[in-house]
Please model this.
Amino acid sequence: MTKTEEALETCKKILDGIELGTLSISSAALLCLRIARLLNDINSIYWLQCETGGYPRTNDGHIINKAWELAYIHGRGSYNKDKQKVIFSEIISELESDVISANKAIGNFSTAGVSAGGEHATSAMRDLTSTVANSTGQLLKRISEAKSKIASLTSAYYDYALKTYIELSFSNTTEAIFDLYREKVNNYLSSLSKDTILKLQAIDDKINSDNPEFYSQAVTTCRRLFIDVATELFNKTFIDFTGKTFKTKSGKEIDVSGDHYINKISAVIEKLEEKSAKNTLIGSSIIYILDWIENLILLQCKGVHSEITKHDAEQCIIHTYVCLGDILSMQES
Model:
């Protein structure tokens, strides 16, 4: 079982346990901490360590600012009568123990079986009854306040487990879909020329480097890959074509010579759109991705950005992969 699968299973255990009332909330908190650790969720690890082990304090006894803010946003915050933000700091296990001990204490306060004699009997019984009532009332109030705090924390732990469960479930679904998509694209890539395949290897080498200059080179290599793919597709689609311009359905002449890869793919798309109406939408998506890559290249050349970031390069590679898949999809229609 992978860490992700274990985290997903733990999420379900928390959700079921809270909904069915079969899991103590202190146990739910510890399981949430386990989920955070499995997923290396640093922020949540810190929060849940505070929840289960106590909120750290300064030398003068105040909860440190970072921990205080976390406590406030995770169900511990409220406003006092002076409209100031306040939090409660008891950990969940303390609150649960407080409810149990208070309930036991209530059972010890009773006038049952008590009798008094003498001239002050009535007064004594009245005082005893009053004492029992006051003590019971205080305990009931203590129980109510503790349960209110427990309910707030229960909601926080449940929300964390639910959010994580949804994210992981969605991730698994998209991963399964992308695996099928990747298989189709890989089959398509295997049919390309050797030089084009080598460009794919070059992209992989660059994006896995720690050298920022390679991120820029990875984007440029994606562009070159599309130039090769566009040329292969155009030559395959328009076998007898010898001109330098292509006349679109709108009557516009576009240059399909040299490295005008977007125009070449546009021409191929127009041809493939005749096969299926759905190709019109797919074709628009492809052109959008190609324009995005081209704009990234132009910005880089003009020096608008100091450098291409790894995030830019990764986006470019993902878009390239999706675009190649869409081109395959059009060909198969």
Residues 110-118 have pLDDT under 50 and may be disordered. The longest strand covers residues 77-79. The first helix runs from residue 3 to 20. The chain is about 75% helix and 5% strand.
